[in-house]
């Protein structure tokens, strides 16, 4: 019962993480609250991968909903015995948890790439990725951030929001991985077994 409650809490925790991912990703489209840069496509290309909105957001909400349904105490007879049904439900939970790892992992990777690449901004030479060839070293050198003249403070904006996305999606990966371990332990370390009822064959 304790393991089941813990597993359910983990699934519930995915929901606020997914909602925050959607919000943070949306904020990336509006540096300093301005909409003109999104409408003119003057944003870093990695925001158009919708990593926080679709993958770490909507898709993870679907994963969380599926996991919560599978964890309900209502018995679901999917095969000839209760033990077989429990094993089947654990396998489904593992599948959805692995999907969760894939979705949140995608957001984690894309956000990290966006963070390292730096923002698309206007410099003295025009609009460009001024930090693209620095391999992320600009992150620890704030004196170089003034090269971006427009949007104002876009470097700080991108660093903060991409870092938050990395944290949120990283937590989702960890939670999904723990879910996989819990469900595998249920299958391998408990009494789940396929029992053929007498007279069925």
TrEMBL record:
The keyword Lipoprotein does not apply. Coiled coil: none annotated. InterPro entries: L6_membrane. Keywords: Membrane, Transmembrane, Transmembrane helix. This is Transmembrane 4 L six family member 18. It is found in: Membrane. GO terms for cellular component: membrane. It is a multi-pass membrane protein. Signal peptide: none annotated. Belongs to the L6 tetraspanin family. The chain crosses the membrane at residues 12-31, 46-70, 91-116, 159-178.
